[in-house]
Design a protein that fits this description.
This protein is mainly alpha-helical and 480 residues long. It is built from 22 helices and five strands. The N and C termini lie far apart (49 Å).
């Protein structure tokens, strides 16, 4: 029988608290102490002492763990706060998740804006950067430093009013007042806030997540305030809307590439959905958990979460088909070819049946969406030429306003083209995806394009490939 991990006591000291955060993050990534040790060049016993608070971590090991676990500065920020608390001084601002924090800008067109951490009070952002060894990472910076000119006018302009990590408490009272006065708009506060959410959803695909997160976070606080005085059906409707806003916040953070924050808000949405008593909403949030696990390539959880969502869903419903779609990708990640194919075929066979499902969730489930996921699974399974063809066909059928989604699929299609040995086509499609990435600030697109940058290395001297790699490089910060 395997040894049970020691119980943690985060309340004992700042370093115990930091160790507990390290363990939570490591386990969320599905890594053992041995695997993490291999990535950060540390022994299992040493990392175990850090997690149990038995030994204070150095800044260097905190930064190494941060990079290895891909948390965009969260662990390093926590280290700085713990260190300051131990020494009894004000916490310094940590600008990057790398021990060498200095970066310089090579392009005035950078628009990737990622939140550092959903639960943080710091107004931080993450930006894609290339380290001296050529690796592309996301580094945490202080947004105010950017606006003071540390990165460049183009980047500051692109940031605009993009969201700080925490809701703007100074804006909430005015928003609450306007929501209470919703009769001016011909409706109730709930109807007014529902319309605002729909507008934010519609703008997200064109403008990207950075423009919407602040409004979503602020309106969650507005709803909480309105719930204080609401009664009966109004209180229930506000709680349901709060759950929907939380799921949307999770999606925005997921698109930014901030998966820790995406998990945080999905957890809130899942908890809140149970207080509403809406089975479809709970099923949908569980399916979204499976989707997020798939996007992070979590081989342990993705299929289990998808199967759980199907158990929660009404039999033969649209949401059951949505969850089955994500299950198919999970099987592909595990290399289970027949199971993956069977699942995606089941979804195709269910499309006509679920078209009349009255649930408002998963209404985007159609042939193109299913085919994109088929292609995604085929690419993982190494069937690159098939994946590329299916991606390109599905992209052509997308509605015009699915701007950001087109960028994600173009980036994945480019990777499939490269895997199929067609580098010129990969570079051409990659440049199209880069345009959308720069327009929307989608971290998901940038992460896919970072993969493309690596797989194109064998053809780097070809003109089309060189053009793509130069353009991609110009959209990054660079370590000095």
């Amino acid at each position: 029988m395997g040894q049970q991990p020691a119980e943690l006591t985060p309340e004992e000291s700042p370093w115990h608290r930091w160790g507990a955060e390290l363990r939570r993050t490591r386990e969320a990534r599905g890594l053992s102490l041995e695997k993490l040790g291999q990535r950060v060049h540390a022994t299992r016993s040493y990392l175990s002492k850090l997690e149990r608070g038995k030994q204070p971590p150095s800044r260097q090991i905190a930064a190494a763990c941060d990079r290895a676990l891909d948390v965009c500065g969260a662990l390093l920020q926590s280290w700085a706060r713990a260190d300051a608390e131990v020494r009894g001084v004000s916490a310094p601002r940590v600008h990057v998740s790398n021990p060498e924090p200095h970066v310089s800008k090579t392009s005035a067109d950078l628009v990737t804006v990622l939140s550092r951490q959903a639960t943080s009070d710091d107004a931080g952002v993450c930006l894609p950067a290339r380290l001296r060894d050529g690796t592309v990472v996301f580094v945490a910076l202080d947004r105010r430093d950017l606006l003071r000119g540390g990165v460049g006018i183009g980047a500051a302009a692109a940031l605009g009013t993009a969201a700080p990590a925490a809701a703007d408490s100074s804006a909430v009272p005015g928003l609450v007042r306007r929501a209470r006065s919703a009769a001016a708009y011909g409706g109730t506060p709930v109807e007014h806030l529902k319309r605002l959410r729909r507008l934010l959803i519609n703008s997200d695909n064109m403008l990207g997540p950075g423009q919407a997160i602040k409004a979503v976070r602020d309106h969650i606080e507005v709803i909480k305030e309105l719930r204080r005085e609401a009664k009966g059906a109004d209180r229930h409707d506000l709680m349901e809307l709060q759950t929907q806003y939380a799921e949307f916040a999770s999606w925005l953070y997921q698109d930014l590439g901030d998966f820790n924050s995406a998990r945080f808000w999905l957890d809130r949405a899942f908890d809140w959905s149970h207080t509403v008593g809406d089975g479809d909403l709970t099923s949908y949030v569980m399916a979204r958990k499976a989707q997020l696990a798939g996007e992070t390539r979590d081989l342990v959880d993705v299929v289990d979460l998808a199967e759980a969502a199907q158990r929660l869903a009404r039999p033969r419903s649209r949401l059951a088909a949505v969850a089955r779609t994500y299950e198919s990708y999970g099987h592909a990640l595990r290399g289970e070819v027949s199971e993956s194919q069977r699942a995606i075929d089941d979804v195709h066979g269910a499309l006509d049946r679920v078209a009349e499902d009255p649930s408002p969730w998963g209404v985007w489930l159609n042939t193109q969406y299913v085919e994109v996921h088929r292609a995604q699974g085929l690419e993982v399974l190494g069937r690159h030429d098939q994946a590329a063809d299916i991606f390109m066909s599905a992209i052509k059928a997308l509605p015009e306003d699915y701007h950001r989604d087109r960028g994600v699929y173009l980036a994945r299609a480019a990777i499939a083209h490269a895997g199929a040995g067609v580098p010129e086509q990969a570079a051409t499609v990659g440049l199209q995806a880069l345009t959308v990435a720069e327009d929307t600030g989608s971290g998901r697109i940038f992460k896919e394009l970072s993969r493309l940058d690596k797989v194109l290395l064998p053809w780097q001297r070809q003109p089309d490939v060189a053009e793509y790699r130069t353009a991609f490089d110009a959209a990054l910060l660079h370590e000095v």
